[in-house]
Amino acid sequence: MFRIKSRRQEIGLSAPFTSTLFSSQPPVMLSRFAPRSFTSSVRRAAFQPIRVAPQVLRTVTTDAASAHAEKADVPSEDDADFEVKLSDESFETYMLDPPSFTLKTTKKELKQMYYDMVAMRRMEMAADRLYKEKKIRGFCHLSTGQEAVAVGIEHGITKEDSVITAYRCHGFAMMRGASVKSIIGELLGRREGIAYGKGGSMHMFTKGFYGGNGIVGAQVPVGAGLAFADQYQGKKNVSISLYGDGASNQGQVFEAYNMAKLWNLPVIFACENNKYGMGTAANRSSALTEYYKRGQYIPGLKINGMDVLACKQAVAFGKQWAAEGNGPLVYEFVTYRYGGHSMSDPGTTYRTREEIQRMRSTQDPIAGLKQKILDWEVASESELKSIDKQARESVDAEVKEAEAMPPPDATPKILYEDIYVRGSEPEFLRGRIPEENFYYEQEKSS
Ligand SMILES: Cc1ncc(C[n+]2csc(CCOP(=O)(O)OP(=O)(O)O)c2C)c(N)n1
Ligand SMILES: [Mg+2]
């Protein structure tokens, strides 16, 4: 059933460039009897700095405007289907037949995807400003550049499905249905924030979205647990468990893979490979940078993470795969973050400004989709401008509302709220017993 063959190979292109990261010389034993010249050259080699190979070429394209449609096939109605062909370099597979390279979309959907990405970027820009104005404190990780992943995923699943990710989560929360106001309010620590101002940037939740998690990799097994819950309840849903290239080396990721395969769980382990984990390039932290192959016994798919249509197609395929009871998949979205790791990282010490500029100017997911919308005459330049304006105005208005929200009252009530659902308290917690718990309402009424 499985074919270990990529689309590139099928269409006669050369085999994917596999990583040759470090030259792996076998260890040489220094012998007392070895000639002086030999030992000194080995000694010299031993003290050479480790040679890191230049950045490995990536095998899928990151061209955000590589899909094709015939202008003549685009219907005049907003919600009538038409066909789009993805680039042959949109996917790379591991033990898997690729998703179809042809997908159906509508003008309405393309405009919605465009709106979503523009609004998401605008929201992140607002967070950037508020942080610099010192109104947002603590950690804050922005996803500018990675919008196609969150938007593509949402367009490929339904609200019944689950998404869980790490700390770079604002865009996912928004796509799952959280308002900009509630997200920015959360960043500002406001009472009306999505987690009542108690979570901040890394900890936001909404229906079908399980965070926003600060511990690298820790969300991955939770994502497998969400899939277990779906399977246990006989629901045909999929759980998308996102993590980064840096997180992919965590032991618990592999434990989750194992359990998911053993129990055939409907989960997509989705690595957002943005080339860096903090300031460390992927090929300096990962012995194998082909993250889609890391499931070993789990089929994998590498995806052009800058093309929202490729992301959507991959996820819709994965959802069906899961619904048919085929078990887990390991995805790798090849993407790029424009900003630093977090607000405290300028993001220019471990990569060149040219690299960032090249990605921004040639592979940008918003500019790519915009070009396609114009090429296919889905919308005119002025229509797109009005979508831009709408997104800008709507986000800006919500940000303003969030800034006007009152901060929480400095009362114990707020501190003690939402810790345990009454009746679910653990019997012992570091020497405490349930009777010692403080219930504000009880105190007040007694
Ligand atoms: C268990 C743990 N170790 C280390 C950290 C510190 N840390 C925060 S983010 C990060 C890098 C993760 O990079 P990646 O998974 O590629 O995600 P990205 O930031 O690129 O989205 C590290 C090491 C942490 N939060 N948790
Ligand atoms: Mg990363």
Layout of strands and helices, then pairs:
Blueprint: H1 7-10, H2 36-46, E1 82-85, E2 91-94, E3 102-105, H3 107-132, H4 147-156, E4 162-164, H5 170-176, H6 180-187, H7 219-232, E5 239-244, H8 251-262, E6 267-273, E7 276-277, E8 280-281, H9 282-285, E9 300-304, H10 308-323, E10 329-334, H11 353-362, H12 365-375, H13 381-404, H14 412-416, H15 440-445
Helix pairs in contact: 3-4, 3-5, 3-12, 3-13, 4-5, 4-10, 6-13, 7-8
Bound molecules: thiamine diphosphate and magnesium ion.
Enzyme class: oxidoreductase
Region (Disordered): 387-411
Pfam families: E1_dh
Description of the structure:
One of its GO terms (molecular function) is pyruvate dehydrogenase (acetyl-transferring) activity. Pfam families: E1_dh. Its cofactor is thiamine diphosphate. Its EC number is 1.2.4.1. The protein is α/β, with parallel strands linked by helices. The chain has two domains: 71-404, Rossmann fold, CATH 3.40.50; 412-445, no CATH class. Helix content is 38%, strand content 10%. It contains 15 helices and ten strands. It has helices at 7-10, 36-46, 107-132, 147-156, 170-176, 180-187, 219-232, 251-262, 282-285, 308-323, 353-362, 365-375, 381-404, 412-416, 440-445, and strands spanning 82-85, 91-94, 102-105, 162-164, 239-244, 267-273, 276-277, 280-281, 300-304, 329-334. A six-stranded mixed sheet has the order 2-9-10-6-5-4, with helices on both faces. Strand 9, helix 10 and strand 10 form a beta-alpha-beta unit. Helix 3 packs antiparallel against helix 12 and helix 4 (147-156) runs parallel beside helix 5 (170-176). The longest helix has 26 residues, at 107-132. It is globular and about 70 Å long. The structure holds thiamine diphosphate (TPP) and magnesium ion (MG). Thiamine diphosphate is lined by residues 168, 214-216, 243-247, 274, 276-278, 341.
